[in-house]
Amino acid sequence: MSITDSKILITGGAGFIGSHVVRRFIKTGKYQVINLDKLTYAGNLENLRDIEKNPNYEFVKGDICDFEFIKSLFKKYDFHGVVHLAAESHVDRSITNPMEFIQTNVVGTVSLLNAAKEAWQDKKNRRFYHVSTDEVYGSLGDDGLFTETTPYDPKSPYSASKASSDHFVRAYGNTYGFPFVISNCSNNYGPNHFPEKLIPLMIHNIKNRKPLPVYGKGENVRDWLYVEDHARAIELIFEKGNDGETYNIGGFNEWKNIDLVNLLCDIMDSKLGNAKGTSRELITYVKDRAGHDLRYAIDASKLNKELGWKPSLQFEEGLEKTVDWYFENEQWLDDVTSGDYLKYYDENYSNR
Ligand code: NAD
Ligand code: DAU
Question: From atom 29 of ligand 1, which residue's Cα is the shortest distance away?
């Protein structure tokens, strides 16, 4: 199936990954993109300043849970495709406030599915792309990789809400013949990443000589992928993936948290002109995340074999680019770390 020259709805386009996806689709020149975003604390229109005047781009502020509003959008625009990224995305927040995750990630996704199902009576040349996470598969031990057939075993409120939304998407495919595709991706990093997540939080704290909170012993492992490589995979799967299929996306790039933080400290020291080791002194081991998944690692060979995708950047190169971006965008970082962020930061870290 191939969808080109079409009108697409991207949800959550003002967020971290969504902003890279919107930019990528706009730059092809093939799509008219409507970006629907509620602009929660994680949504930021600064992430899209460079393309906001593009004639093929339109921003709509709204909530995916507002079914009547979503239905009216489908009526107004007659979308050919949906790329659904809007979500509550931070595991720690899901531990303190699970209801918001059920509302947006589950109810919001079903609201979109329903609106698309009602609008897409013909089902021809339509596609609903659901962007999901590797966390639905649970946690790995020391060996093995998540494949597309690994049984679901979500362990946090966040991953349970994403697993539920994946199940609803597949259920709509099975029950109504609804045209969908799903991808499950590992940890992203890069520009526009909100500094509550590990890498941008550490960059922010190193810059400000604040403690670097490493959960537990720092031995948990994540598989890191540069965000533009994820956006490229999404474009490829949207255009060329097979209906009803799932594709795993990952970086082939596993790092223990503590090794990653040490590397980041060294990169930052060299950029800041510090003696090596200066930033490592800030590392502080804090109380572990409740139910902390030990290890994630993705087998992305299906995507590689079927659609020819592979990551383009080495991790060190991607981290340097990321650090440079945060140095060049100090105003962005200052803006998102003022106001409510400080309250969140104090509440989350003062009792660890
Ligand atoms: P993010 O938190 O940076 O952005 C989420 C965006 O969704 C924000 O712009 C926010 O305003 C918007 N949003 C939230 N609730 C909404 C609602 N009710 N209606 C409309 N918009 C709403 O998230 P992200 O890290 O960019 O993740 C995007 C998607 O990718 C999510 O579905 C997430 O589960 C998935 N994912 C993320 C990662 C990762 O490493 N960050 C990895 C794999 C998959
Ligand atoms: O695997 C994909 C998932 O990756 C996405 O679905 C999520 O939306 C995304 O937030 C991310 O989840 P993680 O929980 O893995 O990411 P986070 O950056 O919060 O944490 C990465 C690791 O670092 C994790 O083992 C917890 C640890 N950590 C995190 C923070 C914020 C710390 O040690 N200290 C911290 O301050």
Answer: 85
Domain boundaries along the sequence of the chain = 6-191+224-255+292-315
In tens digits, the chain (352 residues) has pLDDT values of 445 558 999 999 999 999 999 999 999 999 999 999 999 999 999 999 999 999 999 999 999 999 999 999 999 999 999 999 999 999 999 999 999 999 999 999 999 999 999 999 987 889 999 999 999 999 999 999 999 999 999 999 999 999 999 999 999 999 999 999 999 999 999 999 999 999 999 999 999 999 999 999 999 999 999 999 999 999 999 999 999 999 999 999 999 999 999 999 999 999 999 999 999 999 999 999 999 999 999 999 999 999 999 999 999 999 999 999 999 999 999 999 998 888 888 888 877 7
Per annotation, catalytic residue among 37, 135, 148, 223: 135
Task: Provide CB contacts within 8 A for 252, sequence distance 6+.
Answer: 223, 298, 300, 310, 311
Gap between the Cα atoms of 188 and 29, Å rounded: 25
Please name the helix (run of DSSP H) or strand (run of DSSP E) that holds residue 345, with its range, or none: helix 340-350
**Ligand 1 near 64 CB (within 6 A):** yes
Is 228 among the catalytic positions? no
In angstroms, the CA 326 to CA 18 distance is 18
The listed CATH number (3.40.50.1400, 2.130.10.10, 3.40.50.720, 3.40.50.150) that belongs to domain 6-191+224-255+292-315:
3.40.50.720
Alpha-carbon span 29 to 314, nearest angstrom: 28
Q: Is residue 146 within 6 Å of ligand 1 at its C-beta?
A: no
